[in-house]
Specification:
Elements (H helix, E strand, L loop, with lengths): L7 E5 L11 H6 L1 H14 L3 H7 L2 H5 L1 H21 L6 E4 L3 H8 L5 H26 L5 E6 L3 H13 L5 E8 L2 E6 L1 H13 L4 E4 L12 H12 L22 H10 L5 E2 H9 L6 E4 L5 H9 L5 E3 L3 H5 L1
Parallel strand pairs: 1-2, 1-8, 4-7, 8-9
Antiparallel strand pairs: 3-5, 3-6, 4-5
Length: about 325
């Protein structure tokens, strides 16, 4: 497939996609990417090139580190694509990736994008640190339920709640075959047994810092709220899609409301993929940023539209 201008939607990855050295190849090729790195360093208060080049995996996994770093990598990939003559017809982002999408769609400025992910990462890391301190070894977290339809997972959680099992939430509706749940340590342990009894093939605990996209980190939303409120949100210049609703965002006002809700509400990626695929004139989607997670989820969606990775110079040039 030859990618043509304004016939593809940019999909921006979120946390977990990071790796040491990501986006540095763009830095060598593009003056615009150099400007992005300098701007990010000024706003984040760290040498982002050194951070990405020299940090070990554990450091890059920290929420307050990975959120600015991945956002920079996402925007660098998008900038290089635009320089190669490929502008998006629409944008969507997976969790954190939604902030790069908001910037690309003109809803927020790039400067405000970096300010927001810096504050969001700090608030979510603080929530994770609090949870760890309060819970010790039995900390809340997240687990992937594989082999059950998302609707079945959500129905089971609702049923079990009426029977007294609290603290378990559907967090990421990733694909027709995979749902990530968030919960307390006790709820995750009990949920693993019950999901397997209900027909799940596997239930895998994820190496994440906290129970994200659930009410268990409501304090992060409270901390982030005033920073979010201070930022101007414009109406989208191109279509952009929401994690919270799975649908196209209609206005800047709605986009700001959804950005706040996204911290504690489920990420409905399956519905969002469907809305993207239905956009008129779209011939494919590009995973614009590090990794290949979204490409795998797109294949699981059943869409006939192709998804290409576009996280390195080599991938884009190919």
């Amino acid at each position: 497939m030859i990618i043509k201008d304004q016939t593809v939607v940019f999909l921006f990855p979120g946390q977990g996609a990071q790796y040491r050295g990501m986006a540095l190849d763009f830095l060598e090729k593009s003056d615009e990417v150099k400007r992005l790195f300098a701007l990010a360093a000024e706003i984040i208060g760290r040498d982002m090139q050194a951070l990405i080049k020299e940090s070990d995996d554990e450091t890059l996994k920290r929420t307050d580190v990975s959120q600015p770093a991945i956002t920079l990598a996402n925007l660098a990939a998008a900038a290089y694509l635009v320089e190669q003559g490929v502008r998006p017809a629409g944008c969507a982002g997976f969790s954190l990736g939604e902030y790069a999408a908001l910037a690309m769609a003109g809803v927020i400025s790039v400067e405000d994008c970096f300010r927001l992910v810096k504050a969001r990462g700090a608030a979510m890391q603080a929530a994770a640190d609090r949870i760890k301190a309060e819970s010790g070894a039995a900390a809340p977290g997240m687990a992937a339920v594989i082999g059950l339809a998302p609707e079945r997972v959500e129905a089971l959680i609702a049923e079990w709640k009426t029977m007294g099992l609290s603290g378990l939430y559907a967090a990421n509706i990733n694909s027709p075959r995979q749902t990530v749940v968030a919960g307390t340590a006790a709820a995750l342990k009990e949920g693993e047994t019950r999901f397997k009894e209900a027909g799940a093939r596997r239930v895998l605990r994820l190496p994440v810092a906290g129970p994200f996209h659930s009410p268990l980190i409501a304090d992060a939303a409270e901390q982030f709220g005033p920073v979010l409120e201070s930022v101007q949100f414009n109406d989208p210049a191109i279509p952009i899609y929401s994690n919270v609703t799975g649908r196209r965002v209609s206005s800047g006002v709605e986009a700001k409301q959804l950005a706040f809700r996204q911290i504690t509400e489920p990420l409905r990626w399956v519905e969002e993929e469907g809305a993207v695929a239905a956009q008129e004139g779209i011939e494919g989607v590009l995973e614009t940023g590090p990794g290949k997670v979204l490409q795998g989820l797109w294949k699981d969606s059943g869409s006939t539209l192709p998804c290409f990775t576009a996280g390195t110079v080599q991938e884009i040039d190919a």
